[in-house]
Design goal:
Helix content: 25-40%
Number of helices: 15
Largest sheet: 6 strands, parallel
Number of strands: 18
Strand content: 15-25%
CATH topology of the largest domain: Rossmann fold
Number of domains: 2
Strand order of the largest sheet: 3-18-14-15-16-17
CATH architecture of the largest domain: 3-Layer(aba) Sandwich
Radius of gyration: 23 Å
């Protein structure tokens, strides 16, 4: 059987009963009329009354809006929500908006772009700062023991609405629902605890997993903050809007997952011993390979992203090995100013001195040593890579890797083979000649 592999094709001599080529289901079609779809769901919300029937004149309304890093068309969504509130007699002076960046850096221009339509001139708008103790109020603990610190505006409101979208997200699995509150308007402490708990868990790769442990925390925090209603758009794999949902946040999220999971779910009928990644130029194919193999399985990849992250981790001059523009720029900033945390965290995370620790041990020790692991929030991709290296055997295929690169990769447990078939032979030595093989075809990223 011939398959694409990197920039080439290779012939696999594997019996069909031991070989499975994975495939994606058809994508969700794009909506034809977004405004009509929004009006329809606002007229018949999930597990909730209409906004126009749930609020009244004089109620203090707080509308939480996702930040510039998310693609939802919040300008259109805001206008539809305002029309519903107007029907109930709610006046502009009783409506407050809050920009929900979590820990994302942003500027005033970002806020202005995201809101649009003169919202900043017409309404009170709060720019949430997760690092400002004066902005945040303590609401207790979740059942998992997470401290709940959120913007104090929630305690000054009678009815809280969230506006955002549902798409895969690195740590909580998917966006949407109560995620507008956590991390959106939560404090850095609350965000750090939830992410640290996830990274220290047995399964730190949660992207595309809808109901992981962090989602329970998110839902509890959203409820505790008083989030009553959300308007969410659902994205397909091409970042186009496929559906719109409105209503009670927790139930809405579950309905959104029923819609979105089929287009993101890809895996073998039976877990394989070996996965072959055809084009690892995105992170998602590597994650799919990880989830398609048994614990301790082997992943064969053509040399390229993301395994090429490894050589740069102790060599800040090897910027050509870094696939992410943000990491590249961040690393150069760190060289100029070592007080910048997150690139330093990448180097610590993947430093050979710490490779002996599991991901969970590293996070727990980082907390014990008093390191600020909040920056881990910004290096989810590297955490995924670190987890795959820890729990699977990666064999990178390259006929041009020099001894220095091979040595560098070997420090991280990554072997190098000159051809794909020789990589398979290495896998057979680990798993036997009857090893089951899954082929991960060229697929898009999580976004």
């Amino acid at each position: 059987m011939k398959i694409a592999f990197g920039e080439r094709s290779i012939e696999l001599d594997v019996p069909s009963e031991r070989l499975e080529v994975l495939s994606e289901s058809p994508d969700l079609p794009e909506l034809d009329d977004l405004e009509a779809a929004i009006q329809k769901v606002l007229s018949n919300p999930v597990n909730s009354g209409r906004l126009s029937e749930s609020v009244k004149k004089g109620d203090r309304i707080l509308i939480i809006v996702e930040d510039i890093t998310r693609p939802s068309p919040v300008g259109v969504m805001i206008q539809a929500v305002l029309k519903e509130l107007s029907k109930a007699g709610v006046e502009d002076k009783d409506i407050t908006f809050i920009y929900a960046p979590g820990l994302h850096k942003h500027t005033f221009i970002d806020i202005e772009k995201k809101f649009g339509n003169g919202i900043l001139d017409r309404f009170r708008v709060i720019d949430h700062d997760s690092y400002d103790p004066s902005q945040n109020v303590f609401l207790g603990f979740t059942s998992a023991g997470t401290p709940i610190w959120v913007n104090k505006a929630v305690t000054e409101s009678d009815y809280i609405i969230g506006i955002g979208g549902v798409k895969p997200n690195f740590t909580p699995g998917f966006g949407g629902g109560c995620k507008i509150v956590m991390p959106g308007i939560s404090s850095c402490e609350t965000i750090q605890v939830t992410h640290a708990d996830n990274h220290a868990s047995d399964e730190p790769i949660q992207c595309g997993i809808p109901f992981g442990p962090i989602r329970k925390d998110i839902d509890e925090i959203g409820k505790k903050a008083g989030l009553k209603f959300v308007l969410n758009v659902v994205f397909n794999r091409n970042r186009k809007i496929a559906q719109v949902l409105a209503g009670e946040p927790v139930q809405l999220y579950r309905e959104a997952i029923d819609i979105i999971m089929p287009v993101w779910s890809i895996g073998p009928k039976t877990l394989a011993d070996v996965a072959i990644v055809c084009r690892p130029d995105r992170l998602r194919p590597l994650v799919v390979a990880y989830r398609s193999t048994k614990p301790g399985g082997t992943i064969v990849v053509p040399m390229g992203h993301p395994v090429n992250w490894a050589p740069f981790l102790n060599n800040t001059n090897s910027l050509n090995y870094v696939p992410s523009r943000e990491i590249r720029e961040g690393l150069m900033n760190w060289e100029r100013d070592p007080s910048i945390h997150w690139p330093f965290s990448i180097q610590l995370l993947m430093n050979p001195s710490f490779i002996k620790y599991s991901m969970g041990e590293f996070v727990r020790n980082a907390l014990r040593w008093g390191w600020d692991i909040g920056p881990f929030r910004d290096i989810n991709g590297v955490i995924m890579l670190r987890t795959v290296i820890e729990l699977r055997k990666i064999v990178a295929v390259s006929d041009s890797a020099d001894p220095e690169m091979k040595k560098s990769l070997k420090e991280y447990g990554i072997d190098v083979a000159p051809t794909a078939n020789e990589a398979l032979e290495m896998a057979y030595k680990r798993h036997g000649r009857n090893a089951r093989i899954a082929v991960v075809p060229p697929i898009g990223d999580f976004y």
